[in-house]
Amino acid sequence: MTMSERRTRPPDRGRRFDLRATAMFFALLATALIAGGFAVRALAGAAQRRPAWGAVLLCVAVAVVLARGRGRRKRSAARIARRTGEALEQATVTALDALDAPEPAPPATAAPAERYEEETLRTAGAPGAPDYDTLDPGEFEEAIAALCARDGCSDVRVVGGAGDLGADVVALSPEGRRLVIQCKRYGDDNKVGSQDLQRFGGTCFTVHEADVALVVTTSGFTAPAEEYAAQCGIVCVDRGGLLAWSDGSAPRPWAAGAGGADA
């Protein structure tokens, strides 16, 4: 009968505990701590006796700490500088793209005088423009104001409305005379009568202080109205005179008379 041979585990040949070496390590550590304590005590005594030496040692310690921190800051500063450079490059590209983009055109706006001139071209004498018969009373007043602005008048205002006391458009002529204009948007069969002229004549000079008073209509005037206007110095502009004024074939109507004089 054969018996199996039992293998035994070889003994661990790792590092064995060395009592002598351990004792030596602790002895050296204690010696270092005692020497460090004496050194610190000596330095403290020296600093008390000679503060300058204490300041020097403190500066050396601070310098060591700062040197270690400076190395870390250098690495951080390099990273920040790199990121800053990338951001500046991106901003430069964006600014160049913005400069290359076309500038949007500003919205077109017209000053009051320019608006009157545009209205003149559209309603008074421009090729293909509608005649005055197609305008309502308010548009007719705007068209007359446009003619005044076209011919050099300043401070042109449309003042017609409730309580206007007969004045629809006021302006200053190029010669500096105050113009007060009443606009009558009438049909061909409806002429301006003497009563209309009398109501206007009662306010144009005394209330509105006109230098030149004008009545402009798309129709005509009755004979009594023309007689009254001649007596009071009111300039009458009928349909024919209005069309001639519009196309520039007649003198400006305010040149026909002044307040109180014969038309």
**What letter string, H or E per element, gives the SSE order?**
HHHHEEEHEHEH
- Gross morphology: rod-shaped
Strand residues, percent: 5-15%
For the record, what CATH class of the largest domain applies?
Alpha Beta
The pLDDT mean sits at 75
The tally of helices reads 7
Give me the count of strands. 5
Quick one: biggest sheet? Answer: 5 strands, mixed
Q: What is the total domain count?
A: 2
Spatial extent as radius of gyration: 53 Å
- Label the CATH architecture of the largest domain: 3-Layer(aba) Sandwich
Strand order, largest beta sheet: 1-2-3-4-5
Low-confidence stretches: 107-113, 120-130, 258-263
Transmembrane segments: 21-40, 52-69
Keywords: Membrane, Transmembrane, Transmembrane helix
Protein name: Restriction system protein
GO molecular function: DNA binding; restriction endodeoxyribonuclease activity
Which key terms come to mind for this protein?
263 residues, alpha/beta, Trna Endonuclease, Chain: A, domain 1, 2 domains, five-stranded mixed sheet, 7 helices, 5 strands, 51% helix, 10% strand, disordered C terminus
